[in-house]
Amino acid sequence: MKYYDLVSGSCEVSADFAKRLGFERVFRAGVDIKLVDSDSEKGTSCDNCIAYGTDKKRLTALAGSGARGVAIKDMRADGKLLSVMSENNCILCIPTTVFTSRSGIERSKLFYRAGILLDTARKKHIRVSFISIADSKLHVCSYMQLIEIAKLVGADEQFARNSISTVNGELLVK
Amino acid sequence: MRTKQRYILVETSKEVHDKHVFTERLYGSIIEIVGQLGYHKINPKVIDFASDDLFIIKADLSGVEELIRALTFLKRVDNADIAFFTLRSSGTLRALRAHMRVLA
Questions:
Q1: Is A35 helix (H, G, I), strand (E, B) or coil?
Q2: Which of helix, strand or coil describes residue A91?
Q3: Domains in chain A: how many in total?
Q4: Domain with A25 in it: what CATH number?
Q5: Distance (Å) from the alpha carbon of B88 to chain A's nearest alpha carbon
Q6: Each residue of B46-90: pLDDT tens digit?
Q7: For the purposes of burial, counting CB atoms within 10 Å of the CB of A35, is it exposed (0-12), middle (13-18) or buried (19 or more)?
Q8: Given CB atoms, is A149 within the 8 Å cutoff of chain B?
């Protein structure tokens, strides 16, 4: 199985390190694929990009305008956004850096919300991807660690592996 | 009855110099994340350092997932930022040592 990951543009992961982590390739946002921060960047056009943020209205607009994937930073499920994503065959990206960069009760709440988000997405037949979007080497994960985070969110082993290989491949490999 | 073990090859984001002190602090940090009961289930033990940033850690088979999760969320040891990358796991030490020699 070939695994893929996406990190932030500021985080450099060499091909050799990516292989050691078990990935076929680690993509960089802004270099290999466009990552639109919906909270700070204006405009609703996002062809073949990944939309990332908390503002559900803007994320919904971006999902409807051709975004390949949508990553919801605060993990709050929004019915309208998920419906638009389902209609447009948009992938739900779960960024693992939000879990690794927090601790204590804040992380526990995020896991709870992510579990609900994952369940709702699966009911709506939305494909789910787990990517790190790490902004530093400190938050980069190996494929084994991504699988374990996916399992903590509520995925089973097969679903987690498929998310990190097939779905991430569809999301990142053109 | 003998408990089945699993060995995990781990890389750290920065080099570790005092390995004995680091190992003790690592156990303490794992307890902070998984708690005393979780620690008992994992029963971790650092087996071998191949280099300053590469080591093998052993865990009971039933606690191996907990250990990988703990290492994922462990970002500070001994008041310093550090990340742990679990590279490979194996049921035998020999297979992991062979892989470790290639990396070291």
A1: strand
A2: strand
A3: 1
A4: 3.20.20.140
A5: 8
A6: 999 989 999 999 999 999 999 999 999 999 888 889 999 999 999
A7: buried
A8: yes
Q: Can you give the pLDDT at residue A42?
A: 67
CA nearest neighbour of B93 among B24, B45, B31: B45
**Chain B closest-CA separation from residue A101 CA (Å):** 8
Of B65, B75, B85, the CB nearest to A148: B65
Task: Give residue limits of the domains in chain B.
Answer: 5-103
Query: Side by side, which strands form the sheet with B84-90?
Result: B45-51, B54-60, B5-12, B84-90
Question: Which chain A residues are Cβ-neighbours of B69 within 8 angstroms?
Answer: 145, 148-149, 152
Q: Which residues pair with A25 in a beta bridge?
A: A4
B29 vs A: CB within 8 A? no
Tokens of A148: 């374990």
- ipTM > 0.85 (yes/no): yes
| Alpha carbons B82 and B97: distance in angstroms, whole number | 23
- B86/A20 touch (CB, cutoff 8 Å), yes or no: no
Dihedral angle computed from the Cα positions of residues A133, A139, A144 and A146, in that order, rounded to the nearest 10 degrees: -40
- For B37, the token pair is 């009961």
Range of the domain at A32: 4-172
Q: How far apart are CA B1 and CA B58, in angstroms?
A: 18
What's chain A's length in residues?
174
CA distance B1 to chain A (A): 28
Q: By the 8 A CB rule, do A61 and A44 touch?
A: yes
In this structure, are residues A38 and A44 in contact, taking their beta carbons and an 8 Å threshold?
no
* Superfamily of chain region B5-103: Ribonuclease P, Pop5 subunit (3.30.70.3250)
